[in-house]
Amino acid sequence: MLQANSIQPYVGYIVMVGLGLFMLVIALAVRSSLVRNTHDYIIADRRIGLGFGVGSVIAVWTWAMAVMMSSGQAYTWGLSGLFWFTVPNGIAVMAMVPFALKLRKVIPNGYTITDFIRSRFQNRPALVIAVIGMIFGIFLEIIINLKGAVLLMETIFGIKEIVILAVVILIVTVYSYFGGIWTSAITATVNTLLITVPAAVVTLFVLYKVGGPDVLFESLNKQDPQLLSIFRPEAAASFGITLALGLLASTVADQTFWQKVWAIKPQHVKRTFIWGGAWFYPIPIALGLIGLAALGTGLKLDDIGGDVTAVGPYLVSHLGLPLIIVVLYALLVLNACYSTIDGAFSALTSLVAVDIVKPLWPKLSERRLFAATKLSIVVCALVAAAIVMSGVNFVSLVLTTYAIKTSLLIPLILAIFWPRLTSRGFLWGIVLSIAIGLPVRIAYDELVGTLVIFGISAVVPVIWSLLSKEAPFDYAVLKHTKQLDDAEFFAGSAKGGPVEPSVGSIPQLGREV
């Protein structure tokens, strides 16, 4: 049933460049009408509506992992793999709602989640570890999606890795550079349409080519009836539980999502994340069926170099489908990669402007602040490309990302909802969970290591804080503190001098504690 792949590399170049030029046109239009200064660039004047909000959430969450690992896990574990991959994904997005509502209420003029950490603890080491964790997570998101783009274009079109990296990085960096979060929100909404519709079309063609769902499920049942079971304990132990915890951490402990919390109009925050999580589900379900189809056709991992993530691209390009269908598949995966990298770049700029550049150089002019913010995208892209060239394994990279983000999850939740949490409890919960949990993960397996990280990050902050004699934190302090106005903050840069906090207020929005 599988055939030789005769698609020429020039088709891949047209797909990569054509999609990039389309996004660049949108970015230039956005820049001319919506982006005037750093404030517009990193927070969109807090004017993103429900439509662009939902589209941007779906697009940044539909990254290379969602479109390629869904096929890979379904291929590996059957329906159970598809279940454990899909269900926690949407729940993780919807789980943002209580955290988003709480912080948007107490810090309506926030920019970054680390800005909250600064105000909550007034402790430099806690702030530094939070900033490092967020930036590290953003780097890994970019690396994962660059890796996904390389895997896709190599498998289908045979283009060399260095060429793919150069083209993808140049394209996404250029159009992200111009528009910031406005570009990210608008192009992401377009990308959502370019992912969901092609995913359905491609999957229907794949199912037709393998004889239809009845033939496919009959083939799977003959191979192993367990492939049609949703609740396989070994699938949960192998990757399901680890993935579920990691996915939750990837929303709650990720500036990519928090940037949107403060950029979206307040009345739309709740619905944005609920609809974003719900509307995400059709994408991994459809693409997971491609993995089942690969399993049904008897595709062997040895045929594709042993990387389960390449199952989808390999099957689509070797099944004898019309060229337009193969191109649609390549476009949807590239869209997922482009939109997530774009969203990560946008989140990075908010961290750099508010938590790094502004505190270190408070007298920096608005023009130079804007330039430094945009320059961070270029630097990040070059570093990420170098790491991808090192040949790191895709699946291992994803799971490592989740392990590190898991260390931030419980301390951050406690910081938002538990007034007894102290700065030292927050700090050492993260540090010890990584210092102990990662070696355990390397020595044993992902599940044991992740549970150790999760356990330490939960127990240490609670015990440390209960033993402390510090008074509970009063969240009303945040709510009633004179909030620094957006325009006032950036006007301080434009005038060449920092804005001084009022007496008794908690310094926020990038200023030193």
TrEMBL record:
Question: What InterPro entries does the annotation carry?
Answer: Na/Glc_symporter_sf, Na/solute_symporter, Sodium:Solute_Symporter
User: Which residue stretches, if any, does this entry annotate as coiled coil?
Assistant: none
What membrane topology was assigned to this protein in its record? Answer: Multi-pass membrane protein
Q: What are the recorded GO MF terms, alphabetically?
A: symporter activity
Q: Which organism is it from?
A: Cohnella ginsengisoli
> Which keywords describe this protein according to UniProt?
Cell membrane, Ion transport, Membrane, Sodium, Sodium transport, Symport, Transmembrane, Transmembrane helix, Transport
Which cell locations does it reside in?
Cell membrane
The protein depicted here goes by the name Sodium:solute symporter
- TM ranges: 12-30, 50-69, 81-101, 126-144, 156-178, 190-210, 230-252, 273-295, 315-338, 369-388, 394-418, 425-444, 450-467
Similarity section? Belongs to the sodium:solute symporter (SSF) (TC 2.A.21) family.
Pfam families registered for this protein in UniProt: SSF (PF00474)
Q: Name one GO biological process term.
A: sodium ion transport
